[in-house]
Amino acid sequence: MRIYRDWEPAGAPLAVALGSFDGLHRGHQAVIGQVLNCPGQVPAVVTFDENPSAVLGGQSVPLLMTNEEKAHELEKMGVEVLYLLPFSHICHMQPERFFERLQKDLQAKTISCGFNFRFGDKGRGDTKLLTALCAGAQVQLKVMAAVEDGAQPVSSTRIRALVQQGNMREAGKLLGRPFGFCFPVEHGRQLGRTLGIPTINQTLPKDFIRPPFGVYASMVTVDGRRYAGVTNIGVKPTVGSDHVLSETWILDYQGDLYGQSVPVELYDFLRPERRFDSLAAMQDEILKNAETARQVAGQR
Asked: pTM score, two decimals?
Protein backbone atom coordinates (compact mmCIF):
# COMPACT_ATOMS: atom_id res chain seq x y z
CA MET A 1 0.00 0.00 0.00
CA ARG A 2 1.25 3.48 -0.89
CA ILE A 3 1.01 6.10 1.85
CA TYR A 4 0.98 9.85 1.18
CA ARG A 5 0.97 12.69 3.70
CA ASP A 6 -0.06 15.44 1.28
CA TRP A 7 -2.21 15.85 -1.84
CA GLU A 8 0.24 14.08 -4.14
CA PRO A 9 -1.56 12.42 -7.09
CA ALA A 10 -1.45 8.63 -7.07
CA GLY A 11 -1.20 8.48 -10.87
CA ALA A 12 -4.56 6.79 -11.43
CA PRO A 13 -8.28 7.49 -10.93
CA LEU A 14 -9.29 6.76 -7.35
CA ALA A 15 -12.32 5.49 -5.48
CA VAL A 16 -11.98 7.34 -2.17
CA ALA A 17 -13.40 6.57 1.27
CA LEU A 18 -13.48 9.62 3.56
CA GLY A 19 -13.41 9.64 7.37
CA SER A 20 -11.29 9.77 10.49
CA PHE A 21 -11.77 5.99 10.93
CA ASP A 22 -10.56 5.74 14.54
CA GLY A 23 -10.83 2.06 15.36
CA LEU A 24 -11.89 0.96 11.87
CA HIS A 25 -15.10 -0.46 13.34
CA ARG A 26 -17.93 -2.16 11.44
CA GLY A 27 -19.42 1.15 10.31
CA HIS A 28 -16.07 2.30 8.95
CA GLN A 29 -15.58 -1.05 7.24
CA ALA A 30 -18.92 -0.60 5.46
CA VAL A 31 -17.88 2.84 4.18
CA ILE A 32 -14.54 1.54 2.94
CA GLY A 33 -16.13 -1.55 1.43
CA GLN A 34 -17.97 0.67 -1.05
CA VAL A 35 -14.71 1.66 -2.80
CA LEU A 36 -12.97 -1.71 -2.97
CA ASN A 37 -14.48 -2.87 -6.26
CA CYS A 38 -15.01 0.16 -8.48
CA PRO A 39 -13.97 -0.76 -12.06
CA GLY A 40 -10.99 1.20 -13.36
CA GLN A 41 -10.44 2.94 -10.01
CA VAL A 42 -7.82 2.30 -7.34
CA PRO A 43 -9.32 1.86 -3.83
CA ALA A 44 -8.07 4.65 -1.56
CA VAL A 45 -8.72 6.13 1.88
CA VAL A 46 -8.37 9.80 2.77
CA THR A 47 -8.05 10.24 6.51
CA PHE A 48 -6.16 12.36 9.03
CA ASP A 49 -3.05 12.05 11.20
CA GLU A 50 -4.91 13.44 14.23
CA ASN A 51 -8.37 12.86 15.68
CA PRO A 52 -10.53 15.76 14.41
CA SER A 53 -12.58 15.82 17.61
CA ALA A 54 -9.44 16.27 19.69
CA VAL A 55 -8.08 19.07 17.49
CA LEU A 56 -11.36 20.99 17.20
CA GLY A 57 -12.57 20.32 20.72
CA GLY A 58 -9.24 21.08 22.37
CA GLN A 59 -9.55 17.99 24.57
CA SER A 60 -7.69 14.72 24.46
CA VAL A 61 -9.64 11.89 22.82
CA PRO A 62 -7.96 8.53 23.52
CA LEU A 63 -7.02 6.61 20.39
CA LEU A 64 -8.44 3.17 19.67
CA MET A 65 -5.55 2.47 17.32
CA THR A 66 -2.34 4.10 16.13
CA ASN A 67 -1.84 5.37 12.58
CA GLU A 68 0.53 2.47 11.99
CA GLU A 69 -2.10 -0.06 13.04
CA LYS A 70 -4.70 1.73 10.93
CA ALA A 71 -2.49 1.49 7.85
CA HIS A 72 -1.88 -2.21 8.51
CA GLU A 73 -5.60 -2.99 8.84
CA LEU A 74 -6.49 -0.94 5.75
CA GLU A 75 -3.96 -2.83 3.68
CA LYS A 76 -5.44 -6.14 4.87
CA MET A 77 -8.86 -4.88 3.74
CA GLY A 78 -7.58 -4.26 0.20
CA VAL A 79 -6.95 -0.51 0.25
CA GLU A 80 -4.09 0.32 -2.11
CA VAL A 81 -3.55 4.04 -1.43
CA LEU A 82 -3.73 5.84 1.91
CA TYR A 83 -3.70 9.61 2.35
CA LEU A 84 -2.82 10.42 5.96
CA LEU A 85 -3.32 14.19 5.87
CA PRO A 86 -2.32 16.65 8.64
CA PHE A 87 -5.71 17.63 10.03
CA SER A 88 -4.46 20.80 11.74
CA HIS A 89 -3.36 22.08 8.31
CA ILE A 90 -6.60 21.42 6.48
CA CYS A 91 -9.33 21.80 9.11
CA HIS A 92 -9.87 25.46 8.12
CA MET A 93 -9.97 24.74 4.39
CA GLN A 94 -13.24 25.74 2.75
CA PRO A 95 -15.31 22.63 1.96
CA GLU A 96 -15.46 23.48 -1.73
CA ARG A 97 -11.66 23.65 -1.83
CA PHE A 98 -11.38 20.33 0.01
CA PHE A 99 -13.62 18.73 -2.60
CA GLU A 100 -11.67 20.37 -5.43
CA ARG A 101 -8.45 18.80 -4.17
CA LEU A 102 -10.13 15.40 -4.01
CA GLN A 103 -11.57 15.70 -7.47
CA LYS A 104 -8.74 17.42 -9.34
CA ASP A 105 -5.54 16.61 -7.45
CA LEU A 106 -6.39 13.03 -6.43
CA GLN A 107 -8.59 12.21 -9.45
CA ALA A 108 -11.41 10.92 -7.26
CA LYS A 109 -14.11 9.41 -9.48
CA THR A 110 -16.05 7.78 -6.64
CA ILE A 111 -16.41 9.05 -3.07
CA SER A 112 -17.76 7.08 -0.13
CA CYS A 113 -18.53 8.47 3.34
CA GLY A 114 -20.73 7.91 6.33
CA PHE A 115 -24.09 9.57 6.82
CA ASN A 116 -22.66 11.97 9.42
CA PHE A 117 -19.43 12.93 7.64
CA ARG A 118 -18.48 16.60 7.99
CA PHE A 119 -15.65 18.43 6.24
CA GLY A 120 -14.20 21.87 5.72
CA ASP A 121 -13.98 24.95 7.94
CA LYS A 122 -16.22 24.74 11.01
CA GLY A 123 -17.61 21.46 9.66
CA ARG A 124 -19.70 23.40 7.15
CA GLY A 125 -19.50 20.60 4.63
CA ASP A 126 -21.98 17.76 5.02
CA THR A 127 -23.42 15.02 2.84
CA LYS A 128 -25.97 17.44 1.36
CA LEU A 129 -23.22 19.78 0.13
CA LEU A 130 -21.09 16.83 -0.95
CA THR A 131 -24.00 15.49 -2.99
CA ALA A 132 -24.28 18.79 -4.86
CA LEU A 133 -20.53 19.07 -5.43
CA CYS A 134 -20.28 15.51 -6.72
CA ALA A 135 -23.23 15.98 -9.06
CA GLY A 136 -21.63 19.11 -10.54
CA ALA A 137 -18.31 17.34 -11.12
CA GLN A 138 -19.79 14.01 -12.28
CA VAL A 139 -18.28 12.17 -9.32
CA GLN A 140 -20.23 9.19 -7.97
CA LEU A 141 -21.13 9.56 -4.29
CA LYS A 142 -21.98 6.67 -1.99
CA VAL A 143 -23.30 7.61 1.45
CA MET A 144 -23.42 4.78 3.97
CA ALA A 145 -26.31 4.73 6.43
CA ALA A 146 -25.63 4.03 10.10
CA VAL A 147 -24.56 0.48 10.89
CA GLU A 148 -26.46 -0.47 14.03
CA ASP A 149 -25.97 -2.98 16.79
CA GLY A 150 -28.53 -3.26 19.56
CA ALA A 151 -30.68 -0.55 17.90
CA GLN A 152 -27.83 1.96 18.30
CA PRO A 153 -25.28 3.12 15.73
CA VAL A 154 -21.83 1.56 15.94
CA SER A 155 -19.47 4.41 16.82
CA SER A 156 -15.94 5.04 18.08
CA THR A 157 -17.39 6.88 21.09
CA ARG A 158 -19.45 3.86 22.04
CA ILE A 159 -16.47 1.52 21.63
CA ARG A 160 -14.20 3.76 23.72
CA ALA A 161 -16.71 3.63 26.54
CA LEU A 162 -16.83 -0.17 26.40
CA VAL A 163 -13.03 -0.50 26.42
CA GLN A 164 -12.78 1.88 29.38
CA GLN A 165 -15.34 -0.29 31.19
CA GLY A 166 -13.34 -3.44 30.45
CA ASN A 167 -16.15 -4.91 28.33
CA MET A 168 -13.86 -6.36 25.68
CA ARG A 169 -16.36 -8.83 24.26
CA GLU A 170 -18.86 -6.10 23.40
CA ALA A 171 -16.14 -3.77 22.14
CA GLY A 172 -14.84 -6.53 19.87
CA LYS A 173 -18.35 -7.16 18.60
CA LEU A 174 -18.69 -3.54 17.47
CA LEU A 175 -15.16 -3.40 16.07
CA GLY A 176 -15.69 -6.59 14.08
CA ARG A 177 -12.48 -8.02 15.59
CA PRO A 178 -11.00 -8.25 19.10
CA PHE A 179 -9.77 -5.00 20.64
CA GLY A 180 -6.01 -4.96 20.89
CA PHE A 181 -2.78 -3.13 20.23
CA CYS A 182 0.65 -3.64 18.72
CA PHE A 183 3.58 -1.92 20.45
CA PRO A 184 7.31 -2.67 20.66
CA VAL A 185 8.50 -5.15 23.27
CA GLU A 186 10.79 -3.48 25.82
CA HIS A 187 13.35 -4.79 28.28
CA GLY A 188 12.00 -5.17 31.80
CA ARG A 189 13.36 -6.43 35.11
CA GLN A 190 12.89 -10.06 33.96
CA LEU A 191 11.29 -10.91 37.31
CA GLY A 192 8.65 -13.05 35.62
CA ARG A 193 11.36 -15.19 34.07
CA THR A 194 12.70 -16.10 37.51
CA LEU A 195 9.17 -17.15 38.54
CA GLY A 196 8.67 -19.35 35.48
CA ILE A 197 6.21 -16.90 33.91
CA PRO A 198 8.28 -14.85 31.41
CA THR A 199 6.43 -11.82 30.08
CA ILE A 200 6.75 -9.25 27.33
CA ASN A 201 6.49 -5.59 28.36
CA GLN A 202 4.82 -3.02 26.11
CA THR A 203 4.33 0.63 27.10
CA LEU A 204 0.93 2.11 26.28
CA PRO A 205 1.38 5.60 24.78
CA LYS A 206 -0.20 8.46 26.71
CA ASP A 207 -2.70 9.21 23.94
CA PHE A 208 -3.81 5.57 23.65
CA ILE A 209 -7.01 4.41 25.33
CA ARG A 210 -6.63 2.97 28.85
CA PRO A 211 -8.47 -0.26 29.59
CA PRO A 212 -9.18 -0.73 33.31
CA PHE A 213 -6.11 -1.81 35.23
CA GLY A 214 -6.22 -5.54 35.73
CA VAL A 215 -5.63 -8.96 34.21
CA TYR A 216 -7.09 -10.10 30.88
CA ALA A 217 -7.33 -13.31 28.94
CA SER A 218 -5.57 -12.46 25.70
CA MET A 219 -4.34 -13.79 22.39
CA VAL A 220 -0.88 -13.00 21.02
CA THR A 221 0.35 -13.42 17.46
CA VAL A 222 4.03 -14.29 16.95
CA ASP A 223 5.37 -15.10 13.48
CA GLY A 224 1.87 -15.82 12.22
CA ARG A 225 1.05 -18.26 15.03
CA ARG A 226 -1.49 -17.44 17.73
CA TYR A 227 -0.95 -18.15 21.42
CA ALA A 228 -3.20 -17.80 24.46
CA GLY A 229 -1.90 -15.20 26.89
CA VAL A 230 -2.39 -13.56 30.28
CA THR A 231 -2.06 -9.78 30.08
CA ASN A 232 -1.78 -7.36 32.98
CA ILE A 233 -2.55 -3.71 32.25
CA GLY A 234 -1.39 -1.26 34.90
CA VAL A 235 1.53 -0.23 37.05
CA LYS A 236 2.47 -3.59 38.65
CA PRO A 237 1.62 -2.67 42.29
CA THR A 238 3.45 -5.67 43.76
CA VAL A 239 6.84 -4.80 42.24
CA GLY A 240 6.22 -1.26 41.02
CA SER A 241 6.28 0.62 37.69
CA ASP A 242 6.47 4.35 37.00
CA HIS A 243 4.30 4.18 33.86
CA VAL A 244 1.40 2.20 32.43
CA LEU A 245 2.49 -1.14 31.01
CA SER A 246 0.97 -4.07 29.22
CA GLU A 247 2.73 -7.16 30.57
CA THR A 248 1.84 -10.43 28.82
CA TRP A 249 2.76 -14.02 29.59
CA ILE A 250 2.54 -15.83 26.26
CA LEU A 251 1.55 -19.38 27.14
CA ASP A 252 3.51 -22.18 25.44
CA TYR A 253 5.94 -19.75 23.78
CA GLN A 254 9.67 -19.44 24.26
CA GLY A 255 11.75 -16.90 22.42
CA ASP A 256 13.23 -13.41 22.36
CA LEU A 257 10.83 -10.72 21.13
CA TYR A 258 12.71 -7.61 22.30
CA GLY A 259 12.35 -4.75 19.85
CA GLN A 260 9.58 -6.42 17.87
CA SER A 261 6.06 -5.00 17.65
CA VAL A 262 3.80 -7.79 18.86
CA PRO A 263 -0.02 -7.80 18.41
CA VAL A 264 -1.95 -8.48 21.64
CA GLU A 265 -5.75 -8.93 21.65
CA LEU A 266 -7.72 -8.57 24.89
CA TYR A 267 -10.62 -11.00 25.23
CA ASP A 268 -11.98 -11.10 28.79
CA PHE A 269 -11.35 -9.08 31.95
CA LEU A 270 -10.38 -11.63 34.60
CA ARG A 271 -9.68 -9.58 37.73
CA PRO A 272 -8.59 -6.11 38.90
CA GLU A 273 -4.92 -5.37 39.37
CA ARG A 274 -3.91 -5.76 42.99
CA ARG A 275 -0.94 -5.89 45.29
CA PHE A 276 0.13 -9.31 46.64
CA ASP A 277 1.83 -9.96 49.98
CA SER A 278 4.51 -12.07 48.30
CA LEU A 279 5.85 -13.02 44.89
CA ALA A 280 4.77 -16.62 45.58
CA ALA A 281 1.16 -15.50 46.09
CA MET A 282 1.31 -13.49 42.87
CA GLN A 283 2.73 -16.48 41.01
CA ASP A 284 -0.08 -18.77 42.24
CA GLU A 285 -2.74 -16.31 41.11
CA ILE A 286 -1.19 -15.85 37.67
CA LEU A 287 -1.07 -19.61 37.17
CA LYS A 288 -4.81 -19.75 37.94
CA ASN A 289 -5.40 -16.91 35.49
CA ALA A 290 -3.48 -18.89 32.85
CA GLU A 291 -5.89 -21.81 33.11
CA THR A 292 -8.83 -19.46 32.62
CA ALA A 293 -7.06 -17.82 29.67
CA ARG A 294 -6.62 -21.20 28.00
CA GLN A 295 -10.34 -21.89 28.37
CA VAL A 296 -11.25 -18.50 26.92
CA ALA A 297 -8.85 -18.97 23.99
CA GLY A 298 -10.40 -22.36 23.27
CA GLN A 299 -13.81 -20.74 22.94
CA ARG A 300 -12.68 -18.18 20.35
From this structure: 0.90
